[in-house]
Predict the 3D structure of the following.
Amino acid sequence: MKSSKLLVLASVVIAGLSVAGFVALPLDKPVPRSLGSVEGDIQRGAYVARLSACITCHTDTRNGGQVLAGGAPIKTPFGTFHAPNITPDKEFGIGNWTLEDFARALTHGESPGGRPYYPAFPYAFFERMTDRDIADLWAAVNSVPPVNKPAPPHDIAFPLSTDVAPAVWQRLFFAPPDEARDGGGANPMDRGAYLAGGPAHCGACHTPRNLLGARDTERRFAGGTASDGEKAPAITADALRQAGWTKKNLIYALRTGLMPDGDSFSGSMARVVNGGTRFWTDGDLDAVATYLFAEKQE
Ligand code: HEC
Ligand code: HEC
C-alpha cells in the first residue's frame, strides 16, 4: 500500500475514534512502579544502552552529533520522527527528570506531563526492562555531557501530529506491565527471550505490522519493515536455517556485521550491529542465538 493511502487511512481511523469518545475514556494503566531504592551503576548502564540501541537512535552519528543529543531522521509511513535530546541538559534534554519519570517513559510510553509517546520510540519493547536495567541506564544517561540544543522537531502531518494519535495507538495496542520483570538470569533461553523481546527489540523491524503500525504477534519474526521502507527478512528458526544460518555464524554476524556469504549487513541492521550487538558479551550473543533457533519460543 502506498504510504499516502496509509496516512489517510490512519487519519480517518483516528478522527473516527476521537469523535466516538474512545480516546477520552480513562486508560487503565497501572501506576508506574517505584524505583526509589535502586542504585544505578554507570558501567552496567552503558552496556544496557548497547543492548537497547538508545545511542543508535538518539545520536546523529552521521552528522557528527553529540552522544544522546538527538537522532537522525526516522522515516516511517506516518511521518518523520527525530529521537529527542536525552542528555542531562535542563533546558533541552531530560536534566529535570527523576528516575521515576525516566521509568515511566520507558515502560509506560508517557512523558512526565502525561503526553503519550509515538511508538517510533520502542517503549512497547522497553516495557519489559528490569528495574535494575532502568536504574543503571539512568545513571549512564546522566553521565554524558549535557547538550544545550534541541533536536529537530518531528515532521508529521495533521491529525497524526496531535497527542490523540499516539493515545489511540496505545489504547489499541499497548498494555504496560503491572509488575517488575526479571532479565532472564543465566538460562540462555530466558535471557534470549528477554533480550530479543525487550531491550534489543529485534521484532521492531523483523515482525510484520498491520496498517496502523501494530505488530502482528501471531507472525513474530516473520519479516517486516525497518525505517525508510527497508525490508527486514524473516528470522524465525525455519527461515534462518533455510537461509544458511547456524547458531555459530549468527553469533559471528552479530559480532562482526559479516554474513555467512561474506557480505556485510547493510542499512539499519548494520547500525544494529555497530551501535549494539558488536559490544554484547559472548553470553548475551549466545542467548539470543539460542532463543532464535529454538523450536518453541515463549
Ligand atoms: C528506534 C529508535 C529509538 C530507540 C532505539 C530509542 N529511542 Fe528514545 N525515542 C525515540 C523517539 C522517536 C522518541 C520521541 C517519541 C515522541 O516524541 O513521541 C523517543 C523519546 C525518548 C524519550 C522521551 C524524551 C522526551 O524529551 O520526552 C526518552 C527518555 C527516551 N526516548 C529514552 C530512550 C532510551 C533510554 C533508549 C534505550 C533504552 C531509547 N530511548 C531508545 C526513538 C528511539
Ligand atoms: C532497526 C531495524 C532492525 C532491528 C532492530 C533488527 N534488525 Fe535484523 N535486519 C534488519 C534489516 C533491514 C535487515 C536486512 C539487512 C541486509 O540485508 O543487509 C536485517 C537482517 C538481519 C538478519 C539476516 C537475515 C537474512 O537471512 O538475511 C539477521 C539474522 C538479523 N537481522 C537478526 C537480528 C537480530 C537478532 C536482531 C535483534 C538483536 C535484529 N536483527 C534487530 C533490521 C533490523
Observations:
- The mean pLDDT is 88.
- The CA atoms of residues 13 and 123 lie 23 Å apart.
- Residues 196, 200-202, 204-206, 226, 230, 232-233, 235, 243, 250, 265-269, 272, 277, 288 surround heme C (ligand 2) (CB under 6 Å).
